[in-house]
């Protein structure tokens, strides 16, 4: 049986997307336990995960470097207290997923180059590792994800070739792949992220709990095994 594809549309600057990634990771672990899924035990190695680009703020100038709270207050017209309450809520949900968010240092940025880096990482088999590093850099460390130098440093941290990465980012090698992802998201009617597409047939919206994702993936794997 061929590998089951799970395509995930997300934005590195989306707090729910990092939670969604962690929940998907946990769901794949649950698939090893037949008691966690309404089917026989399933080998999660039969699943492949690809991350696709979605831009929550595509009009953000590339040179933008501002606190996330200031961006939402100034560009979205949201009251500061409302933004803080929203951040507090998602920070607690993230903590429940084992993540630490620090919105006091998180910087708003145009994430297009970060998405190009994700596609470079995919080309060398390290996309999941790069996604994890970028999410942590944004939500925990306050890194500037619109800055090519910082992105190159982050890529080098996980062992990617610094010169190759910098060249790919500065020349826009993967810009067309990002655009293709955005076009596909539009074709699917995706208006919010994270959004999971299982086997190219089933869509799941939002940072669903691991159990929900595991059950959905398990059902599709079982369907494929029966055909």
UniProtKB/TrEMBL annotation:
A GO molecular-function descriptor: oxidoreductase activity
InterPro entries found in the cross-reference section: DSBA-like_thioredoxin_dom, Thioredoxin-like_sf
Limits of the DSBA-like thioredoxin domain: 6-217
Protein name according to UniProt: DSBA-like thioredoxin domain-containing protein
Lineage: Bacteria, Bacillati, Actinomycetota, Actinomycetes, Mycobacteriales
